[in-house]
Amino acid sequence: MTLLLSVLSGVSAVLAFALAAIANQTGSITPLSASEVAMYRPYTYFAATGYCGPSYTRSWSCGVNCEGNPDFQPVDAGGDGEVVQYWFLGYSPSLERVIVAHEGTQIQDIVSIASDVSIIQRPLDPALFPGIPSSVRVHCGFADEQAKTATLILAAVNTTLAKYGTSTVTVVGHSLGGAIALLDAVYLQLHLPPSVKITAVTYGLPRVGNQGFADYVDAKFAGSLAEGE
Ligand SMILES: *[C@@H]1O[C@H](CO)[C@@H](O)[C@H](O)[C@H]1NC(C)=O
Ligand SMILES: *[C@@H]1O[C@H](CO)[C@@H](O)[C@H](O)[C@H]1NC(C)=O
Fold first, then answer.
1. How far apart are CA 100 and CA 153, in angstroms?
2. Is the pTM of this model over 0.85?
3. How many domains, the chain?
């Protein structure tokens, strides 16, 4: 909580959350070496930048967290931080991939807290998630949040992949933003060609769905997900 608040206050928000261990698809937790921690550092900055509004992320002027990825080329951003969590999207030349990031929960924000406590699970919307097994159930609050920006993000990811000639997408987020990012990963994989590699790096990820969801994610994203505190 102290760490999250340091992000929110915007004071020395550098690496306010760090990826110290990685959970692989067998559910085992593997501590990361120093070099692996360094490898995840850019994603930590991206996840922290998810707390910045579009006026800052569009111009990549959010301060230390933007400066953590100085070569990033923002393409689109949105959200109002209340009804729709902030998000941004662009291209990282050094990581050679499209980055999509979602804001997490701000403590003072009643709407996003309400999303966190919407713990009733439901199937995913088949219009957004065609062919997803009916055994898959996701917490309503997370599914609702992801649905608000899904089509916008798909269109922007698709054009950004083509514009920069890359075929890798990494979605990132902290807390609620991690839950939206994981659902984005599932969603994008259903709509983009199999040649596009989708990965997710999440921090403080809450439980997103039921065992059916966990099994689906494990089967579809073997080795492509990293989760830290
Ligand atoms: C998952 O983690 C366990 C425990 O560290 C390790 O033995 C196993 O090789 C890992 N599996 C993969 C696919 O990385
Ligand atoms: C992605 O863009 C291509 C054109 O570059 C288009 O043919 C395709 O339908 C788009 N896919 C999605 C999912 O929007």
1. 8
2. no
3. 1
